[in-house]
Amino acid sequence: MRAGVLILIGGLCLALVTGGPDLDRDESELVALSSRWVSAVANRDPGFFDLLDSSAAEHYQHLRDVALHGEVPVLDALEPTDQLQVLFLRLAIDANQLHEMSGREILVRAIDEQWIGQDLRRTDELREVAVEGDTATGRLYKFGRDDRRDRGRQYFRRENGEWRVDLRGERERLEMDFESFVTRSGLAPSEAAFFILETRLLRKVTPADFVPPAFGLGTEISDVSVSKAPTAHTHLRIVAVRESLDDPHESAVTIEDRQESLRSVLSVGDFFGDENGHRLVRVAGDRAWLEHDGASLVLRLEPEGPPLDQRLRVDGVPTATVSLLEQARLGQYREGLMAQWRNVGLRARPQLLQQGWLVPEFAPGHETMLGLRVRKLVEGSFWHQIGLAEGDLLERVNGDTIDSMDRWQEALRAAETDQAISVVVRRDGQRRRFHTRTVPPRGSRKPI
User: Fold this and answer.
1) Per-residue H/E/C for 14-72
2) Which of 93, 243, 322, 398 fits 98 for a cystine, CB–CB 3.0-4.6 Å?
3) In this predicted structure, what is the pLDDT of residue 200?
């Protein structure tokens, strides 16, 4: 009996002694694997694929098949981040080329285009490793700092005796990033996804883009329609009036349809919505005159009225149920990138910075800053509303000369909070002056 007890105790001790090194070895292997993974992804090294488990290629092969063949209901069934990646594949890669691409090639393209893995840095360190059988988790710490713990976990799986990276961690991180953007922007998920889609593709997305390229010639998408009730004029309001101090033809109004959550910048003669919508016939002071089916409608800017907010619809329809296709339909009659995205340019700085590309311009051979050159501009954006056009040199904002980066930051703060904004631009060798008045931006009640 005593000998049996000794043997049992000895066996337990042996298990503890041999178990420790195995766990330490697993942890060391996982830390080394994670380091190789984050470094390869950060360097866009295609060798990262050899560190992944088999499920990664299978997932992207599935996304490829949806991109080529998936109809709208199949697309809608995916998570928003997977919907985006499917549409990136469908709209950024030729269908014949995509059909021939392997899961490895698709993943390499996704990493190279930063559709996934964009937050990984070479200095990220894996900690808090937990091993359970053939699966393991850990958490990345940014720059190796104790106070910069990553918001998500890293997952691992053992295949054929070797540890591999499970892409679930990156997919969860994408989802968390997307949810964070939805919260910050105040947009519905489909609105946020549509904004990301057009921003990344740098082109207008239309309903035709939702027809699978390998589905067959002549396929139409009319079977997936958006039911619309006629828009009453009570849903329309002016949210901004731009007055040109030099040319009346450059004056404009920004009109909002609170039912459709749609905003457009209109000059005299333009239609709101499609050609059956309201036509702008006159702008004067704080009023705009529109015509529709022979009837006149006068709208007036209300500086003390409701602010721009994340929920514009007044019919009680939850915006979260609107699909990406329905978002595309909202702006199919308007020209310009993101016209259907219901401009949020007068809301907050993140949108302001993403709707235009303005770069400092200096006098030749001098350090004197002349202003900001408008390189790119989104139609319907905040910058468009206040009068800027591509190629302009923005010289003054609210009377202050843009002659330093500090002045530029002050201009951004004014753009975020002020209801009255004046700008001076140089266009085609001549100065143009614009004065814009708005309803209150979200979160600000700064007086005019």
Assistant:
1) HHHHHHHHHHHHHHHHHHHHHHHHHHHHHCCCHHHHHHECHHHHHHHHHHHHHHHHCCH
2) 93
3) 85
